[in-house]
Specification:
The protein is of the alpha/beta class. The chain has helices at residues 42-49, 72-76, 84-88, 96-101, 117-129, 145-158, 175-190, 228-231, 234-241, and strands at residues 2-13, 16-27, 31-35, 57-62, 65-66, 79-82, 163-167, 197-201, 213-218, 221-227, 245-250, 253-258.
Amino acid sequence: MTALRYDHVDLDRVGNSVLHDISWVVDDEERWVVLGPNGCGKTTLLQLASGFLHPTRGTLDVLGQRLGRVDVRQLRRRIGLVSAAVAKMIVPSLSAMEVVVAASDGALEPWWSTYPTAARDQAVALLAAAGFASIAERPFGVCSEGERQQILLARTLMASPDLLLLDEPCAGLDVGGRERLVGRLGSLARDGRHPPMVMVTHHVEEIPAHFTHALLACEGSVVAAGALDDTLSAANLSACFGLPLRLRRDDHRWSCRAA
């Protein structure tokens, strides 16, 4: 199944052109990283993919459904989104487990449902799979930024989405938090049972192992897109960020610096 199909998509906002002629396909079992400088339209691509924006021109199919012809409220139930916007809506006093288990019926808070023991156990198991079982009863508001991102990721997986979107999940994390989260995402990417994934980032160092494809964006347009090993090059990164860059790969991880 094709998870995302952008066909000559333009997006205008407040009289300004934000995205220009985007044609991009994300197929099932693919894991994409979207790279580019600030303001290039990366997050906007995810807002379109999650049904919170619609193209001005062109067409976008999400999980086989054409935006503009589908009830996006139902479509969003099939999409997992990890973003800072979700974190801001979480009640700080909720425990990590409560934040995760509430996703089983699409809620932000658990007050209006009674969750069976099996659902609560599943929520704890998702935290444990990332090595965070010890924070299951900790209030979300006192968790570190790294712990919160792991909770939000577990919450997203709790809903068994058909598409997983991650908007700068490593932003603001220290090295330990980043490496734990990148490692967890690499484990998910390796497992074919998990849905197609699209992750937005500014940094090649944050690309998890086992990601398969890359899209490089600049000024609302696609610089390059395709298989990761073919697309992620010093030349393409330099064109994307407007600066001569050197790219290095160590095992399954990347790094870059100015040439």
